[in-house]
Design goal:
Helices cover 47% and strands 18% of the residues. The chain has helices at residues 16-24, 45-49, 67-77, 97-107, 126-135, 163-168, 179-189, 210-228, 232-261, 268-293, and strands at 3-9, 32-38, 56-59, 82-86, 91-92, 111-119, 141-143, 158-162, 193-203. The chain is α/β, with parallel strands linked by helices. It is globular, with a radius of gyration of 19 Å. Strand 1, helix 1 and strand 2 form a beta-alpha-beta unit. The chain has two domains: 3-203, Spore Coat Polysaccharide Biosynthesis Protein SpsA, Chain A (Alpha-Beta Complex), CATH 3.90.550.10; 210-293, no CATH class. Strands 1, 2, 3, 4, 5, 6, 7, 8 and 9 form a nine-stranded mixed sheet that branches.
């Protein structure tokens, strides 16, 4: 087996069939297996997965789930030389997703991991469309070191890691969220590189409410605080500057994008609504992250 595709899932009845169908539709020379780890679905997710006899299904209790822990569990079950991590709500965009994701690992032995481009869903909030376009452009990005202003180094929404590299650098079993950022920092600080490969694409985005976004970003802030700040004092001061600067920088850019750079045909009334959504999201997101940083 060349590739093992590990998919964490919970209550993904809306997405899991599309995800699996897109995987089985891949035009690839690689042999692969699919491992789905369900953490207590109460909808029809399990029934849908069982329609695919070749999919290996592992079921764990909800309280046993962890973003790093569950991915480690899937990697331990995997037989492939390369491990591909894919979210159940991330649907491969075309038939070349897998090949384009894994190929760079065979071409560059210093690569610890490769991750895909995220294409926003049709109903994605416009501020998030702008963020994805900015953070995930159409050209590859090779990272060899971390930076204090880096908010996204790697993404296990859709990523490939050599099995040997994962054995050397497994995910943190105890991390609450942002296991991919923690992992990327470790491999980069140990002399490896990570690659963003836009030729590999998945359709993936979330329309979080302000409350959901604040809580999510708070957890992310908690996870990244140890490698972003030296102590609580630096988190308090530098973090405050990053928070206020982020809001001041992001929101005006959102307004310009929504009003003048979005595709034609969007009603003006929707644009006004999207501007309000953007303001609430930026304040909630940066405020939540700052709260997480202060947990240091």
């Amino acid at each position: 087996m060349e590739i093992s595709i590990v998919i964490p899932a919970k209550n993904e009845a809306e997405n899991i069939a599309q995800c699996l169908d897109a995987i089985y539709s891949q035009d690839t020379p690689y042999t692969f297996e699919i491992i789905v780890i369900d953490s207590g679905s109460t909808d029809t997710t399990i029934d849908i997965i069982k329609r695919y006899p070749s999919v290996q299904l592992a079921q764990i209790k909800p309280e046993e789930f962890g973003h790093g822990k569950t991915r480690n569990l899937g990697a331990e079950m995997a037989k492939g030389a390369y491990i591909v991590f894919l979210n159940a709500d991330a649907v491969p965009f075309n038939s070349h997703w897998l090949t384009n994701l894994v190929n760079p690992l065979g071409e560059n032995q210093n690569l610890a991991g490769v991750f895909s481009r995220h294409i926003p869903k049709d109903d994605c909030f416009l501020y998030m469309v702008r963020d994805l376009q900015a953070s995930m452009p159409d050209k590859p990005i090779l990272r060899t070191k971390t930076g204090k202003l880096d908010f996204m180094l790697f993404s296990t929404v859709s990523a490939a890691i050599p099995r040997a590299t994962w054995k050397q650098f497994p995910f943190d079993n105890d991390i609450i969220i942002a296991e991919d950022q923690d992992w990327a920092n470790k491999v980069l600080n140990n002399g490896f590189a990570v690659l963003y490969e836009p030729a590999s694409m998945v359709r993936h985005s979330h329309n979080y409410s302000a409350r959901q976004l604040m809580e999510t970003k708070r957890k992310v802030g908690e996870a990244e605080a140890p490698f972003r700040f030296k102590n609580k004092c630096s988190a308090l001061i530098i973090g405050f500057i990053l928070m206020t600067g982020g809001i001041i920088f992001k929101f005006p850019g959102d307004m310009i994008y929504i009003l003048f750079r979005t595709p034609g045909g969007i009603p003006f009334s929707r644009k006004i609504k999207e501007i309000k959504i953007s303001l609430a999201a930026r304040v909630a997101g940066f405020r939540g992250r700052y709260k997480g940083w202060l947990s240091l």
